[in-house]
Amino acid sequence: MTRSISILGATGSVGASTLDLIRRNRDEWRVVALTANCSAVDLAKLAREFDAEIAVVGDEGCLGDLREALSGSGIDAAGGARALCEAAARPVDLTVAAIVGCAGLAPTMAAIEQGGTIALANKEALVSAGDVMTRAVTQHGATLLPVDSEHNAIFQCLQGNAIEDVARITLTASGGPLRTWSQEQLAATTPAQAVAHPNWDMGAKISVDSATMMNKGLEYIEAHHLFPVGLDRLRIVVHPQSVIHSMVEYRDGSTLAQLGPSDMRVPIASCLAWPQRMDTPLQPLDLPAIGELTFFAPDEQRFPATRLAREAVEAGGAAPAVLNAANEIAVAAFLAGNIPFTRIALSVEAILQQSNLPPAPASLDDVLHVDQAARARAREMLEVA
Ligand code: NDP
Question: CB of 374 within 8 A of CB of 351?
Fold first, then answer.
């Protein structure tokens, strides 16, 4: 049976992994909408290959290029923030939400409001809009499937069990490419060094987040919303091999873990086939070759981001949205060569401390307002455009 799918953020790393799996099972899927920000030529190529109904660029300035690249194909082209939401609202069996950053929030909410199934990679959206998004999921009868490898692992470990029986959830963290670096080395880190992740091949923003450990902080908040066991039952453990993607401990002393290759096609396949399974081209784990699995407590002196995320989610209200927005601006400034690596977490902390935190956002518009205001403050602090 053919199922319909839309991929928001089709030109990115998660988008490419998703389309690789679709390509291998072409007869099973009908592609409805594919979106990008401004990679118009790449997007048009994908839309033609997968015979999409519509291709959308978030940046309206790139619509001319998209139209030109799609001319004669019969595929609709659209551009701008509103067009992204309209495309996301087209009814489909599965929406893959893989835009990076809070820019993905409104389109993801548009998909949720259709009451469909959303494979969520866009963690920043859930971090910023946690309660607003989970309320909308309930209200519209939507289903969220976690794509993030850790949350997908937890989701799998929870199957057939009651959340009340969970004693603790352990999020594993690779520790990133700079895990063993000294404070002095961290201060001199270049963007190329920060994005060179030892285990995962990912987009630039999440790669920097992995290097600062903010990725794990965002995931801590994400887990809090997806698996409401209480913050005291959530912990982070550094596991440099990235073989165990996360674990759930139960009150009887059993711990269930999900293991797999460090390739996003594994958790994405789990979402595409859910509640069944599908083939992937990946080799099973060769445990004797891996040899050893090691575990460490996070070092929050050198990598304060997990502490900042924990403090933000404990503070609640608008704090996680402020944390996320400040981090997005700081990561972009670091990647552009405008601030040193260690200033990312320092500036996020300063913005959180400086902010007269607004009350908890009650709607999508509230979240977007908090996000924009925090971005403006972060830009001002870092003196970036
Ligand atoms: P990439 O940077 O590789 O891709 C991002 C995608 O979003 C691209 O299609 C990009 O379009 C689009 N995009 C960027 N900005 C905007 C915008 N303002 N409006 C509309 N579209 C936009 O990111 P990743 O694939 O690495 O990550 C995507 C999300 O998935 C992130 O939230 C990340 O944290 C999460 N994730 C990623 C993992 C990975 O392995 N990569 C693992 C787990 C989670 P364009 O090409 O035009 O810029």
Answer: yes
